[in-house]
Amino acid sequence: MPIIVDNTLNQIRAISMGGDDRAEKAKRLAELIRKLGDYRWVGVYDVGKENVSLVAWSGPETPAHLSAPVTAGLAGAAIREKRALIAGDVRSDPRCLPALETTLSEIIVPVLSPTGGQVIGTVGVESDHLDSFSGRDQQMIEQCTQAALPLWLLR
Predict the structure, then answer these.
(1) Which residues pair with 109 in a beta bridge?
(2) pTM
(3) Which of 23, 103, 109, 137 has the smallest CB count inside 10 Å?
């Protein structure tokens, strides 16, 4: 991976373990991921027993859904399958509940607890272009969520 990614991962680790307000740390995480991939919108979510709830986001506008049932949307599928999922065209994927009306593709990366492997959070990234996310994007976002694990563990 390029050095810029390593620098960003170090920044994410420092932010997630820092003393700032949790929502502020989550916002900074979303901003760093957004910049790293030149993405249009990034959301950081907590996963509870019944709902997936937005902690913070970075992008041009407020998302349509601040909370959704853990069984709904692409996030619900990623939570059930405990793996990242990509929708190349959200218009043809009935699982999708995009944050923005103009979203055409989306990736959801679950954050797994190191003990027990339950999903404790997700990071959702959206684009206004079709088929915007590759395996490289998935790998990069997964590395960012791993670096940010303390954000979910230290709440």
Answers:
(1) 123
(2) 0.92
(3) 23
